[in-house]
Design goal:
With 678 residues, the protein is an alpha+beta fold. Helices cover 57% and strands 7% of the residues. The strands form three sheets. It has a five-stranded mixed sheet with strand order 4-5-6-10-7. A three-stranded antiparallel sheet has the order 1-3-2. It has a two-stranded antiparallel sheet with strand order 8-9. Strand 8 and strand 9 form a beta hairpin. The protein is globular, with a radius of gyration of 25 Å.
């Protein structure tokens, strides 16, 4: 471990980010940095104390519990500043938060490769203390963490491994930061906005010449791709989206892949993917790839039928009998096909999904199935913007956690939707309980004069998904912070949130909260039925898209350590054509914008893997008492959600299902014909 660790140089942070620093901003950031450095110093002294314990005096309490205290302190020091880098309105605070994240990441690399600390934990294991359950699992997994961190390598290789890990951490942060900072827009005329509703158009910025500005931010980009009738605009928007940060990120990604290969070689592993997946549910990269290919085989026939329908629809709509179906057509014609087959307009459906009512539904449903109470309170010191709303969460009258909602777009805010764990659950040796805190961040349309914030069905599904992540963190009851909440295997982490999306597939559930924002009328039952029936209208094509991302990711990370990194753009184009049966726009650079290659490296397959588990758990929940019943909710909470990462997810899922998960529910959920389920 290092003898010292320099904190962020605020002058350099400001200069590097081109930030003009006001006096009050400097004071805010200095306070944040000072608090971080204080926590870091205390955490370091904790590690020194662990290492200094005599072998005969080493116990689980003074070693593993103390090590968990260290990680908990690091969470406290880093989580809020790191979160601010994505959401804080002040550019200096965002830049400082990002720099704190970099400093902390490098420090944690040193900790993870500390031979002294590893030997301390190994000495404890050698004493064979009488452990079970969460305690034994934590000890076993911690030893594996150290070994994966290169701690057992010879000194020279270990130092090189540390260098690579630190640089990789910085490069991953830079990759994501480049995407957040990237700005591009396309000015269009009023005629080119045909198909878009007045609410969308009114929110757009205007140029001095009176044109409308389409940006690449999700609240602007995605609706146009769904409903914009001008094909040339859709194509240009997609092309610009696929060029984001390509001048910086393509070279970064190539370097990152090579460095991951070098780290893999130092560890003597077969590939980076095998190294990562060995501690996931899939166990091996080959098993993950076989799973994706199996799903691909089963959905290809359905996708081919959908593609034929979509192509015919485009030819009919355009009058061009030779028209081909392209990437920029996917969302647009899928929406038209849905309208034709199921006789409803998704643009009109959102008039039934007022944001405030959806929030109420999320809370009400969660309250019923998990036996919770929610109380809206004034945002505390952590509230970073006036629009942020805070809730305290109670169970049986006792507060068990808190969360924040930051729902509306603003300049320089994170442009997607996500849930952040801000503070883990932890039980200290003296019995004191640290309650978890989380945040949900979205970019939903803001209310306008005479019109509330309204959500599309896709946005409602996103809301339920992210709230599922949030509940996974809040409902944790683990003793140790390092296995709390969503700190689970990456190919399981999405399952609870993907499962919660499926509440929107139930007619009775939708009817409880979907009411027209003008009339207050409940959404008609027949419309709900058509919405539910329509969800698989292009599920084959959409599944192929997710398979493409997963296979692209695995292809890169299954390279042997000495294999040459392929032309990333050409690989992207080739796999697009092979898997999705569609080409990509020449001159674009999709890999440069694939941010999941950072945090989800060799793990994107997990979205599909966890969907299989989510579908199985959903059917068990639905059939075990009903979607609004606390009976299956209590079981899921006790057997899965509360456990966090304190047990292998295989065990948790099997405990809830009473058996191992099977693929059948997933295929039924996709609407794959029985003949393809073999």
């Amino acid at each position: 471990m290092p003898d010292s660790f320099p904190g962020p140089d605020l002058e350099e942070v400001a200069k590097a980010n081109g930030v003009e620093v006001r006096a009050e901003d400097r004071d805010t950031v200095r306070t944040m940095v000072d608090a971080f450095m204080t926590e870091l110093g205390t955490a370091y002294r904790q590690l020194e104390a662990i290492v200094a314990i005599a072998p005969a005096d080493r116990t689980f309490q003074n070693t593993m519990e103390s090590l968990d205290d260290f990680y908990n302190r690091m969470e406290e020091a880093v989580n809020w500043p790191g979160f601010y880098a994505y959401v804080h309105p002040d550019p200096f605070v965002r830049a400082a938060g990002e720099e704190i994240d970099k400093v902390a990441s490098k420090f944690l690399v040193d900790v993870g490769s500390s031979r002294a600390l590893y030997l301390a934990v190994k000495a404890l294991a050698a004493r064979k203390p009488p452990l079970s359950g969460e305690d034994q699992y934590l000890l076993d997994e911690t030893l594996k963490d150290f070994e994966d961190g290169g701690v057992a390598l010879p000194d020279k290789k270990r130092e090189r491994f540390k260098e690579l890990s630190k640089e990789l951490s910085d490069l991953a942060i830079d990759f994501s930061s480049n995407l957040r900072a990237y700005r591009d827009s396309l000015p269009v005329t009023a005629d080119q906005l045909a198909g878009m509703d007045s609410d969308y158009i009114e929110r757009l910025e205007r140029t001095p010449e009176g044109k409308y500005v389409l940006t690449l931010d999700y609240p602007v980009f995605l609706p146009y791709m769904d409903y914009g009738r001008d094909e040339s605009v859709r194509k240009e928007l997609r092309a610009r989206y696929l060029k984001r940060a390509s001048d910086k990120n393509l070279a970064l990604l190539e370097k990152i892949i090579r460095m991951r290969q070098e780290r893999t070689k130092l560890l003597g592993r077969k590939s980076y993917a095998d190294s990562i997946i060995s501690r996931r549910m899939a166990k091996t990269a080959a098993a993950a790839r076989v799973f994706l290919e199996d799903v691909r085989r089963r959905v290809d026939r359905k996708a081919a039928g959908e593609m034929a329908e979509l192509t015919a629809l485009k030819r009919e709509e355009t009058g061009d009998t030779a028209a081909t179906f392209e990437q920029w057509d996917r969302n647009f014609y899928s929406k038209i096909l849905t309208r034709r087959k199921y006789d409803y307009d998704p643009q009109q459906v959102k008039e039934y999904f007022q944001t405030d009512l959806v929030i109420g539904a999320l809370l009400s449903i969660s309250q019923k199935i998990y036996e919770l109470d929610f109380k809206r309170v004034a945002g505390g010191r952590e509230a970073w913007h006036e629009e942020v709303v805070r809730y305290d969460v109670f169970s049986a009258g006792e507060k068990i956690g808190e969360f924040y909602m930051d729902l509306y777009p603003r300049p320089n805010k994170y442009t997607h939707a996500a849930a952040w764990g801000l503070r883990p659950h932890k039980i200290f040796p003296d019995g004191r309980v640290q309650l978890p805190a989380s945040a949900i961040v979205t970019n939903f349309p803001k209310p306008a004069p005479g019109r509330p914030s309204l959500l599309s069905l896709d946005e409602v599904e996103t809301f339920f998904h992210e709230f599922g992540h949030l509940l996974h963190g809040i409902l944790s009851t683990t003793a140790f912070a390092s296995v709390s909440g969503t700190r689970v295997m990456r190919d399981f982490v999405e399952a609870p949130s993907q499962m919660f999306e499926k509440w929107l597939q139930d007619t009775a559930v939708l009817s409880t909260f979907a009411k027209h924002y003008k009339t207050g009328d409940t959404i008609p039952a027949d419309l709900v039925e058509r919405i539910v029936q329509s969800r698989n209208v292009t599920s084959g094509v959409e599944t192929q898209r997710q398979l493409f991302y997963g296979i692209f990711d695995l292809t890169l990370h299954m390279l042997a350590p000495n294999q040459k990194v392929p032309d990333l753009v050409q690989l992207w184009f080739d796999l697009k054509r092979e898997i999705e049966k569609m080409g990509e726009i020449p001159g674009t650079c999709g890999p440069a914008g694939f941010d999941h290659l950072m945090g989800y490296a060799a793990g994107y397959y997990g979205y599909m893997w966890s969907k299989m588990i989510a579908a199985d758990m959903y059917e068990a929940f639905r059939d075990g008492g009903g979607l609004l019943s606390p009976v299956p909710g209590r079981r899921l909470r006790e057997q899965v959600l509360s456990k966090g990462g304190s047990r292998p997810p295989d065990e948790l899922v099997q405990s809830f299902l009473g058996r191992r998960p099977e693929i059948g529910a997933f295929l039924r959920d996709l609407g794959v014909p029985d003949g393809d389920n073999k």
